[in-house]
Amino acid sequence: MVLDSKAVNSRRRTSHVDRNLPALSCLVAALLFGASTPASKALLSSTGPLTLAGLLYLGGALAVLPLSFRGGSAQLRREPKQRGMLALAVLFGGGIGPVVMLFGLKAASAASVSLWLNTETVATAVLAWALFHEHLDRRTVIAIALVLAGGLLLAAPEGAAGWRAGALVAIACFCWGLDNNLTALISGFTPAQTTAIKGVVAGTVNLTLGIALEGRTPGVGPIAAALAVGAFSYGFSIMLYISGAQQLGASRSQLIFSTSPFLGVLLAWTLLGEPVRLFQVGAAVAMVAGLIFMLTARHEHEHSHEATHHTHAHRHDDGHHDHAHPGIPARVRHTHPHHHSPITHSHPHAPDIHHRHGHD
After folding, report:
1. Are strands 343-348 and 334-340 parallel, antiparallel or unpaired?
2. Which residues contact 263 (CB under 8 A, 6 or more apart)?
3. Predicted TM-score (pTM) of this structure
4. Between 133 and 265, the higher pLDDT residue
5. Burial 192-226 (b: 16+ CB within 10 A, else e)
């Protein structure tokens, strides 16, 4: 009985940790991305925005390239819809978004831009609702409002001089919001494959444009530094975010990702010597409250799933994946192409890759 009790407790701990892995993936992604803003601010002194954007995304591609040669579904990758969503994600998320953000960062402080990046949370949620019919419960709407209020409170003291930079960052956040929604729906490519393609294509284009238009080529040191920042803050961060977003849904995963500005601000204070402001603490309280609202939201109703065929990371104890793998425990997460039969059931759920329905 003692051994049985220990085994049960061990399984419970494993199951609890595994259920939290998507949220943990988004949180680690946020920490890595948050560090990129002050690091990029320092690199902009020797590298133009277009060139730096290219190097950052090429570094991200190099980081995940070894993980991108396996997995996914060759059949789904051939579908025009999958390729179309990936092309748009590359254009907006890897091409336009980072360049516009870096132009904003060049004109403003790292702390200010870090905090403006909270606009991405709102852009992701609004686009998810408007374009992809993702459900937003009342608590999530309140959470979005609190996060937005915190971001505005933090950005307001910049005054008129900060509006241009703020507008550029807002445009970048819109691009990334669209990217977030698209990548959460892509099922033919693994997160590593999506990240590698985005980095190689967008990074090469931006680097080529930067060298041609900016008239200066950075030295070996800045190039190596930019590639390193890109590897961690854009490569591993994007891959972890996509992995979490496919299971949590775009708006909820983005709310967790909205913690990234705090690390950016902390590094701007400590490494770049930017001043600490009292209103930033008040904004932080509002954002933390918003995250609490989001994490405690509960959404449950009877819903139906149509027959579908796709590929993504999944387990066999979540009520949706009942196909068998001899020798693989139900709690072990794995990835492969699989088929779903039609089903109607009721359980608590988030707007993940299986739950994209609207609900009044």
Report:
1. unpaired
2. 30, 31, 34, 35
3. 0.75
4. 265
5. bbbbbbbbbbbbebbbebbbeeeeeebeeebbebb
Task: Specify if 11 maps to a domain.
Answer: no
Residue 150 · residue 287 · CB < 8 Å: yes
Q: Give which of 39, 47, 48, 37 is closest to 222, Cα–Cα.
A: 47
Q: Count up the domains in the chain and report the number.
A: 1
Strand-strand pairing, 308-314 and 334-340: antiparallel
Please, are residues 120 and 254 in contact by the beta-carbon 8 Å criterion? yes
pLDDT single digits (tens) 261-317: 878 888 888 888 888 778 777 877 887 788 777 666 665 545 455 656 555 555 565
Distances (CA, A) of 339 to 238, 310, 321, 324: 27, 7, 9, 12
Distances, alpha carbon 30 to alpha carbons 25, 34, 159, 258, 320, in Å:
9, 6, 27, 7, 28
CB 251 within 8 A of CB 143: no
The residues near 84 (Cβ < 8 Å, ≥ 6 apart) are: none
Non-local (6+) Cβ contacts of 216 within 8 A are 48, 51
In the chain, at which residue ranges do the beta strands (DSSP E only) sit?
300-305, 308-314, 334-340, 343-348
Which H helix or E strand runs over 97?
Answer: helix 97-107
Q: Report yes or no on 12 lying in a domain.
A: no
211 neighbors 125 (Cβ within 8 angstroms): no
Find the domain containing 84 and state its range. 22-301
Residues 156-188 pLDDT 10s = 766 655 678 888 999 999 999 999 889 888 878
Dist CA 9 CA 97 (whole Å): 46
For residue 186, being part of any structural domain is answered with yes
Tokens of 112: 């200010």
In terms of Cβ atoms closer than 10 Å to its own Cβ (0-12, 13-18, 19+), residue 20 is exposed
Residue 328 lies in a domain: no
198: nearest Cα among 216, 215, 213, 176: 176
Backbone angles phi, psi at 326, to 5 degrees: -55, 130
